[in-house]
């Protein structure tokens, strides 16, 4: 699948914001700790992926009722759903000057019911011309995710026959529907009932890179 930058300026994928708040002391502390043993960009990106995947439990797996949406809160409270963990990973990448984007899939149950949007992070490492999607959601029964610049190692591959979709757009910020659901949720059970089932295009016309 061809991944498409929604913003043609790669600097948009390095910016700090209220959500991807990579200038926050908590994000910097984690990034600094990881970079001590992993100064190389590739090694750092892989180590940051493993940290978010393994050290921050997915709240639907752990039963944590809290809802996080800022990267700093995800890292401080050590909890979040896939969207939040994707934001945390993006912030750790941007904290070290590595462009990071947010992207999404539409997934369903095995019979095509209960569609829901799943959040991923994409990384553009120095010297690479193409973005690579990563899935820091967290492993479990039947799920084995890995950092990879080649063949994707995501939690799920889409099944088009069931209406599942890989959305190609690379967002500098969370999709508005995703962020709205996170910010409005009183707790995780409320969030589970209000997760978006699909995404509409937003922002300017996407730009395909040469």
From TrEMBL:
Could you tell me what this protein is called?
Transglutaminase family protein
Q: Which residues form the Transglutaminase-like domain?
A: 30-136
InterPro entries xrefs: Papain-like_cys_pep_sf (IPR038765), Transglutaminase-like (IPR002931)
Pfam families reported for this sequence: Transglut_core
* Organism encoding this protein: Streptomyces bikiniensis
């Amino acid at each position: 699948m061809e991944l498409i930058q929604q913003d043609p300026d790669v600097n948009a994928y390095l910016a700090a914001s209220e959500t991807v708040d990579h200038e926050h002391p908590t994000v910097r502390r984690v990034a600094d700790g990881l970079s001590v043993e992993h100064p190389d960009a590739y090694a750092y990106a892989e180590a940051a992926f493993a940290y978010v995947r393994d050290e921050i439990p997915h709240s639907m797996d752990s039963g944590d009722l809290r809802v996080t949406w800022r990267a700093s809160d995800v890292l401080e409270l050590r909890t979040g759903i896939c969207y939040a963990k994707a934001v945390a990973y993006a912030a750790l990448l941007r904290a070290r000057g590595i462009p990071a984007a947010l992207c999404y899939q539409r997934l369903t149950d095995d019979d095509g019911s209960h569609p829901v949007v799943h959040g991923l992070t994409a990384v553009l490492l120095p010297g690479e011309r193409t973005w690579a999607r990563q899935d820091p959601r967290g492993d479990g029964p039947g799920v084995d995710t890995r950092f990879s610049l080649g063949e994707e190692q995501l939690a799920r591959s889409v099944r088009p026959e069931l209406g599942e979709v890989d959305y190609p757009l690379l967002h500098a910020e969370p999709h508005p529907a995703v962020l709205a659901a996170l910010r409005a949720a009183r707790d995780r059970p409320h969030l589970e009932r209000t997760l978006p089932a699909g995404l509409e295009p937003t922002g300017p016309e996407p730009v395909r890179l040469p």
